[in-house]
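Project channel, design review

CF: Before we commit to the Mucilaginibacter ximonensis constructs, I'd like one complete example in the thread so the newer folks can see what an input/output pair looks like. Taking Glycosyltransferase family 2 protein.
RD: sounds good, go ahead.
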Amino acid sequence: MKKTLSIVIPTFNEEKNIAHLVNELDRIMSLTEYDYEYLFVNDGSKDDTMAALKTVAWSNPKVYYIELSRNFGKDYALKAGMDMAKGDAVITMDADLQHPPQLLPLMLKYWEDGYDVVYTYREESNPHAGSFQKMASKMFYKFINRLSDLTLENGISDFRLMDRKVVNEIQKITEYEIFFRGMTKWVGFLQMGIPYTPAARHTGEASYSFSKLLKLAVGSIMAFSVKPLYIATGLGLFFSVASLLYVPYILISYFCGFDAISGWASIIATVAFFGGLQLLVLGIIGSYLGKIFIQTKNRPNYIVRSTNMVQKHDIVKL
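CF: and here is what came back for Glycosyltransferase family 2 protein:
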């Protein structure tokens, strides 16, 4: 009996990439010995992505779509696709063709060799990334590796293959602000990393801005580590001890009759510095409390507006 593969593809404003991606995947997958399906998750696109998906799904029985009620974010779109995937293995990839479909046979080979997770990471010599993008990427992964309990390769991507037993464990996770690149590492199992050179985007532009990347970095660290709280505690302890060093100066000045020279500038600077430090520490603590507050609401990670999965499976049964 053939093994089955579910290829999960989150989409956001990718109307011009859908048909081309399906053609490329069909060309590669037709050379393999697997049954397969494509699960496109439309994450609140503002263009005609949904219309493009319906058109392709009408002509290709292997194409399924899941339309979310709004834009929940890429990781939640991935979660939606993985929750509905039925394959013996699940492959996740982007819709812009920067993740080369030509790499799928190698990923499948490692899976057949016994690896439970086969993930990819970008090579340093990425010809399609600018200097700022490369620097920001290095800073992101260095930052998260230092402050979290995970070790992620620079440029690790959402192009990966996961065995069914890994997917079953991830399906149980319902936490707030999922970070799949870290979550896949966290679950463990036998993993293999493959370097790759991203292709140029077929059409469109990257949707991640600097502010989104910064938010992603902070959220990812807090999702896997409490080290920022330890750092805040250490800062408070350090400055508390440092302030005690001022006591001998006060005593000596008092008993020896030295006149202390008052300076408004130094006083204001000191007050502003420690005030800012306190706000920073409170902000870190507040962020963790905020995550706990949102998590206790137990809201769903995503809401599905429409899908053709039920209809197509019903047709197959008939």
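RD: helpful, thanks. DSSP finds twelve helices and eight strands in the chain.
CF: Confidence is low (pLDDT under 50) at residues 314-318.
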